[in-house]
Design brief:
Elements lengths: L20 H12 L1 H8 L3 H15 L9 H22 L14
Helix pairs in contact: 1-2
Amino acid sequence: MVIPPKAGALPSQADGSIVTQRDAHVLMMESLGRLGWQEAAGYGKRSLVETAMGRYKTIIGARLRSRRPDAQRCEAAIGVAVLNRMMALARPNSMRAATATGTA
């Protein structure tokens, strides 16, 4: 899990030979900007995973009904397949509209 440094954070004042993970993120934020850092570091994946798990628990249920581990894996795989199918049916088929150029 990545916790972003505060806005305006500066690298630590170490001797420079050891770059900590925090310092690497601070330097990356300085070069890419905050949004660029979020994309490069994968920040926000946790939110997507939490949303998916919340959706799974709401629709499929909060607990597994099977007792054996192999049956639990099968039950979870079936639940994920059902949820993916439902999401695919609800997702709109978007297409980029052609832009008119040269018209005034």
